[in-house]
Sequence to fold (165 residues):
Amino acid sequence: MDDTITISKTELEKMIAEAISRNSLPRQKKDFRDVHLSDDEVKKINMKHPLISKKLSRRFASQITDEPSIDEIRYGRTKPDSIYTRKRYGKGNTYGYAHHKIYLQDILDNLRRISLAVMGASVIKDLDDDEFEYCLAIYEEFKNLFLNLYDERLSIENKILENME
Fold:
């Protein structure tokens, strides 16, 4: 048996108006776009270390020789916005000092996951607005920590390369 509830017309109109306004209000876009790690930030750190940026902008014909690859001869040098590694890794027929299994997007995803894990969430939509703002601050702290540690590492690597010359 159904229960009957009686409400006035004004109460019904008020309830409908609240439901419509809840669904039609502009929603806040929740993402890490404003604080994410960019190619330019990595490139700026790489450019601070001249020997590193020189190695990152080169493409080699093999893992052993210092001959430039056909791609480098044809297209010129690349911009050094990759994460540096000591070993040369191959991609296609070119070799370089950037590990081609470490992409900037992977780092972005890891920073995002760690930030969300600190908040006890696995996806952004689990966070309230105030929690999301705090999560953005956490993300930015992790990003700055990553950039500082990467910069320190490249300083050491650059000194090693200077001593080898």
